[in-house]
Structures are given as C-alpha cells and as structure tokens.
Design goal:
The protein has a single domain, classed as Decaprenyl diphosphate synthase-like (Undecaprenyl pyrophosphate synthetase, 3-Layer(aba) Sandwich). Helix content is 42%, strand content 14%. The chain is globular, with a radius of gyration of 18 Å. It starts with 14 loop residues before the first strand and ends in a 10-residue tail after the last helix. The protein binds 3-methylbut-3-enyl trihydrogen diphosphate (2 copies) and magnesium ion.
C-alpha cells in the first residue's frame, strides 16, 4: 500500500464518477500526438482505481468513451480501443489484487467482437470480487441510457406485464445499465470543463461536482484527495432545510 493515509478532513464518498477529460490537451502541450495523452491516461486510471479501492469507495464509474465520441476521427477511435483492449488484459492482476469487480455501462451494439470478448472475460474473472465496483462507461450516453430504459419499459407495458401507472422512479432505475450501483455522491471532471457531456443524467441528480484544472493524465492521488476534501466541505441538502 502506498500513498497517504486518510486524514480527518478527507471524507470518502460512497460512490464516485469521473469524466476523464483533457488527454488531447495534455498531449498537445507536451508536443505529442493526441493518442499519447490517452496512453498516459491509462496510468491515471490505474492510480485512481487503486486509490479509490484502498480508501473504501464502494462504486467508481469512469467515463471512458461517450456515444458522441464515435464522431471522432476513425484513427483515434481505433487507437483508443487498442488501448482499452490492452488495459482489459494488463490490469487484471491489479483488479484482482484490489478485489475490484468490473462492470460495463453503455451500448454493446457498436463495440467490436474482440472488445466485447475481452470486456466480458474481465467482467467474468472479477465477478466474485467483493471490494469496489468499477463501472467503465464505454459507448455510453446518458440520454441513450434513458431511451434504452424507456424502450424496455414500453415493451413490458405492451406485453401487459406492467401498467403505465405502475411506472415509478424505481422502475426507471431498475432499467438503467447498472441498476445495482449507488448514485454518485461526487462527480469529478478534469481539464477545467464545467459540463456534464451526457454522463449519468439520471444518476447525478444530487451529486456534488468537483472540477479539477489538471488534465486527466496528470490526475493522481493528490488531486483525488483534494476532490475528497472539497466534497467533505459540502453541505448536502437534498432540497430540505438543514
Ligand atoms: C478525454 O480526453 C478522453 C476521451 C474523451 C476518450 P479528450 O480526448 O477529450 O481530451 P481533450 O478534451 O481533447 O483535451
Ligand atoms: C466526455 O469528454 C467524454 C469522456 C470523458 C469519455 P469529451 O471530451 O468527449 O466531452 P466534450 O466534447 O468536451 O463535451
Ligand atoms: Mg475532451
């Protein structure tokens, strides 16, 4: 185990979601091609996963590839998926050692069979782990997730298994990609951008938002701890009078 121990003022959220942004800018500033930023971003993923698991986070959702990212140049997309495939094999030991259970959030339809195979293998390998759940949002969009949920609910209504009046928040939640995960308490976005970019639209209703100015490849344990300290200073009201 490395890194500082949790301090008194470091409040560990139960559930964390991260929009890992700024790989391209990091690479550009360093004089490299964009893909070098994505490569370096893998090290930041390992650090954040390991540190969140060590600190006792229950669920971590990482935004790795959005539905809209399919509009990027084909070369960047294929290099990103090469990196993802490498990650899914190379990180197996780290996931097992940290008792991390891998999950996927997103549409499977556009993912190549070799990507799906490695994803499913790593999910199956880690399925028995009882530590942190790590959900990778790949080919993920918040609106698409809600569309997919609505279609499945509509099919149940049509089949007569569900009445329209019985559709509640619980029904919608049960049809999300990972219904078992708690809503994020903390949403972190790197590279200074202050937007949601179609991430977890249903789930972030009451998430606290922390924007870090560093680009994702430079996001390490120190920045994660800063986010947790910032979270610890928030007064969460959930619409009530405290
Ligand atoms: C985030 O970094 C990684 C993905 C979206 C896959 P970007 O590639 O968006 O980096 P910037 O925003 O161009 O700097
Ligand atoms: C959001 O980052 C998606 C991921 C981090 C995977 P983008 O870089 O795609 O978002 P925008 O385009 O700046 O909103
Ligand atoms: Mg970006």
């Amino acid at each position: 185990m490395t890194g500082p121990r949790p301090n008194d003022d470091l409040v560990v959220p139960r559930s964390v979601a991260v929009i890992m942004d700024g790989n391209g800018r990091w690479a550009k500033r360093a004089g490299f091609e964009r893909i070098r930023g994505h490569e370096k971003g893998i090290d930041a993923v390992r650090t954040t996963v390991t540190e969140c698991a060590r600190l006792g986070v229950e669920a971590l959702v990482l935004y790795a590839f959005s539905e809209e990212n399919w509009q990027r140049p084909q070369r960047e997309i294929s290099l990103l998926f090469q990196l993802l495939k490498r990650f899914l094999v190379a990180e197996r030991d780290t996931l097992m050692q940290n008792r991390v259970r891998l999950l996927h959030a997103g549409r499977r339809a556009r993912l190549q069979p070799d990507v799906l195979a490695l994803l499913d293998e790593t999910i199956a390998l880690t399925a028995g782990n009882r530590g942190m759940a790590l959900s990778l949002a790949i080919s993920y969009g918040g609106r698409q997730e809600l569309v997919d949920a609505m279609q499945r609910i509509a099919a149940e209504v049509e089949a007569g298994r569900l009445s329209p009046a019985a559709v509640t928040e619980t029904t919608i939640r049960a049809h999300l990609y990972q219904p078992g995960l708690p809503d994020p308490d903390l949403l972190i976005r790197t590279a200074g951008e202050q937007r949601i970019s179609n991430f977890l639209l249903w789930q972030v209703s009451y998430a606290e938002i922390h924007v870090s100015d560093v680009c994702w490849p430079d996001f390490g344990a120190e920045q994660l701890h800063a986010a947790f300290r910032d979270y610890g200073r928030r007064v969460r009201k959930f619409g009530k009078v405290p």
